Amino acid sequence: MSVVERQEWDVVVIGAGGAGLRAAIEARERGARTAVICKSLFGKAHTVMAEGGIAAAMANANEHDNWQVHFRDTMRGGKFLNQWRMAELHAQEAPQRVWELETWGALFDRTKDGRISQRNFGGHEYPRLAHVGDRTGLELIRTLQQKIVSLQQEDKKETGEYESRLKVFQECTVTRILKDERGRVSGVFAYERETGRFFVIQAPSVVIATGGIGKSFKVTSNSWEYTGDGHALALLAGAPLLNMEFVQFHPTGMVWPPSVKGILVTESVRGDGGVLRNSEGKRFMFDYIPDVFKEKYAQSEEEGDRWYEDPDNNRRPPELLPRDEVARAINSEVKAGRGSPHGGVFLDVSTRMPADVIRRRLPSMYHQFKELADVDITAEAMEVGPTCHYVMGGIAVDSESAAARGVPGLYAAGEVAGGMHGSNRLGGNSLSDLLVFGRRAGWHAAEYAAAQAFERPEVSDMQIDTAAAEALRPFSAEGPTGSEDDGPRPPENPYTLHQELQQAMNDLVGIIRREGEMEQALEKLADLRVRARRAGVEGHRQFNPGWHLALDLRNMLLVSECVARAALERTESRGGHTREDHPTMDRKWRNINLLCHLADPTGGLAATDPERGQINLVRETTDPVRQDLLALFDKEELVKYLAEEELYQ
Ligand code: FAD
Fold first, then answer.
1. CB–CB of 215/226 below 8 Å?
2. How far apart are CA 477 and CA 484, in angstroms?
3. Rounded distance, CA 394 to CA 213, Å?
4. Pairing state between β 118-119 and 129-130
5. What's the 647 CA to ligand 1 centre distance in angstroms?
6. For residue range 498-509, what is the model confidence (pLDDT) as tens digits?
7. For the segment 554-571, what is each residue's pLDDT rounded down to a tens digit?
8. Chain centroid to CA 551: how far?
9. Which H or E run includes 172?
10. Residue ranges in the chain whose pLDDT is less than 50
11. Can 597 be counted among the known catalytic residues?
């Protein structure tokens, strides 16, 4: 039996991005002793990289904006597959969450009359993104961290200890969520990255806020820690994942030089007037406005350009269509041989804005291109192409409480939770999502934990031993048996397996999908699963990135199988899921959710044959959208989206 340190808290939050920190603040303010665990340094999460802004209908830049318009835009962006109650709560509560940030010290850019400035973004009818230049996420995280420090100072005054009620465990990775014999959450098993030491935090409530899955794809804007851990932890704990086929490929990532391929070029570049051109100099987006959006977008360059000055009397340019549309258009231009020298298209602000305005409004982009690609964006166009950016699919949650389905005590918020964005997320809606639902998750997790006060779930030694053995397996892994002459072969290298996985997902389940290729992907995943069981590492547990990756592979393989299976099942194109063999949106699929469950309900992977799929897919009909919300749309528009039976109702 291993000796593993145990600590007792009320709520454990996994992840210290915006969702995790907002949840932790809420839980602590509601009286729960709260522990936050994060894989990287405190303050380094995707949230900090968010550039464009937080979408909230505050009506500062256009008085016609309100939560109903924001709700409508979000549903249109998600092609009506959004969990509509989440989209409603999100649109209603986002402004309060932004104002609250300001009271906690956030310094947003201002309008001339001193209100929080709001900028345009794709799919949003009005300028709606509260921002701080193109470093909004940095200010958001700084503010939430500052709030945490102020709460810790209060605790010091009352209890004599800063970390008595709110403590951050940084550079620690959770590998398992633990449950008691009644199926309730009882805590988490984690290791410290620096020392390799294992520890357990016992708690009745766990909030998963681990962000995205981008590292399963080769070209991605995501950084190293986004290996789908939270998605996999939930699956292994018995909670289903929802609509995992919907992966967002952001239209504008850097394409050159190769070492920075995939790094994000913020949508604010287009929101502030940047235009997309092909190698012939043509503003090609006018050729790609889909029927459902025809009436809302400018049909000529002149009208599109007039919109920046007079949005009430002109329609917006098609560069500001939702991301899925723009990404597909760029992909088509490159495929047709009209791409830029390095396989993207041109994104130009240099001919649209004076150099000093570019440097002021887009400082990070200016430096990013100057330093990484030696391109001066005030004088020349950028080369850009699609990059895997965000996952709309995620843990199936209750809209009000953020409770994960089927596992008492488990909650999820932020990018790791599914449903809110339907088949495609609008830019800016992630930062608002994580504030709105981070708060809700922290609130309900704290209430649930308080309700368990007299019957706290226990963690058994056996569970800890099993989790420890699983984490240690890469140190004793053996390669496949060779022939008698060559003896046993060395274990598999986790880096090689990771590269093969990323290549397969990029090539076979990427931006444009085909049945045969997805079947090939599933075969490749089966092969990788078998080999990943033999992934081995040398050395010891002190800071050993090869070991960490070997553990992350389990998560990436599970999540990739969910994406591939669901993508194969959904025989239509919608939002972030494009099938070349089923190129149109099919109303029959409008009210169908695909749920991924772990095939082995005990949560064990070791016992199952890795060659066999580990995921069962279940179809589920969605709840009908409430009548008063449907009334926000024109009937003609609803006809384009809703399934036949829904229209009759
Ligand atoms: P994250 O901020 O991703 O944080 C996840 C946390 O979980 C991290 O602390 C990580 O270390 C931790 N973690 C992961 N696995 C484990 C584990 N096993 N154990 C312990 N901890 C773990 N959205 C917008 O709305 N507007 C924008 O302008 C915008 N710009 C973006 C720019 C870039 C470059 C990127 C990559 C994304 C952008 N997004 C934007 C998307 C948005 O930033 C993310 O979707 C959002 O920040 C996710 O927040 P989160 O709190 O869910 O998770």
1. yes
2. 20
3. 10
4. antiparallel
5. 37
6. 999 999 999 999
7. 999 999 999 999 999 999
8. 20
9. strand 172-179
10. none
11. no
Distances (CA, A) of 567 to 126, 393, 576, 578: 33, 11, 10, 9
Ligand 1 pocket mutation, candidates 36, 225, 416, criterion most atoms within 8 A of CB: 225
| Contact of 575 with 324, CB cutoff 8 Å | yes
Q: Which two tokens stand for residue 19?
A: 């969702």
Single out the residue of 576, 556, 416, 545 nearest to residue 499, CA to CA.
556
pTM above 0.95, yes or no: no
Longest CA span, the chain: 81
ipTM of this predicted complex?
Answer: 0.99
pLDDT of residue 2: 61
DSSP structure class, residue 74: H
CB 574 within 8 A of CB 593: no
Instruction: Check 33, 131, 231, 250 and give the catalytic one.
Output: 250
Report the amino acid identity of residue 357.
V
| 261 in Cβ contact with 255 (< 8 Å) | yes
Residue 223 alpha carbon to ligand 1 centre in Å? 9
Exactly one of 76, 131, 270, 587 is catalytic; which is it?
270
pLDDT for res 142: 97
Q: Which of 144, 210, 558 to mutate to test the pocket of ligand 1 (most atoms within 8 A of CB)?
A: 210
Ordered structural domains, the chain, with CATH: 254-388 (3.90.700.10)
The burial class, CB within 10 Å (0-12 / 13-18 / 19+), for 352 is middle
**Structure tokens given for 233:** 């932890």
Q: Which residues pair with 129 in a beta bridge?
A: 55, 119
Return the beta strands (E) in 115-171 as ranges.
118-119, 129-130, 166-170
In whole angstroms, what is the distance from residue 565 CA to residue 518 CA?
A: 8
For ligand 1, pick from 170, 416, 421, 430 the residue to mutate: most ligand atoms within 8 Å of CB: 430
Closest to 392 (Cα-Cα) out of 559, 232, 573, 246: 246
Answer whether 262 contacts ligand 1 (Cβ < 6 A): no
416 CA closest ligand 1 atom index:
52
477 touches 490 (CB < 8 A): no
Classified as helix, coil or strand, 272 is coil
Residue identifier of the C-alpha nearest atom 30 of ligand 1: 50
* Full DSSP string of 422-476: TT-PPTTHHHHHHHHHHHHHHHHHHHHHHHTTTSPPP--HHHHHHHHHHHHHHHH
Burial class (CB in 10 A: 0-12, 13-18, 19+), 603: middle
User: Does residue 14's CB lie within 6 angstroms of at least one atom of ligand 1?
Assistant: yes
Residue 39 Cβ < 6 Å to ligand 1: yes
Q: Does the annotation mark 270 as catalytic?
A: yes
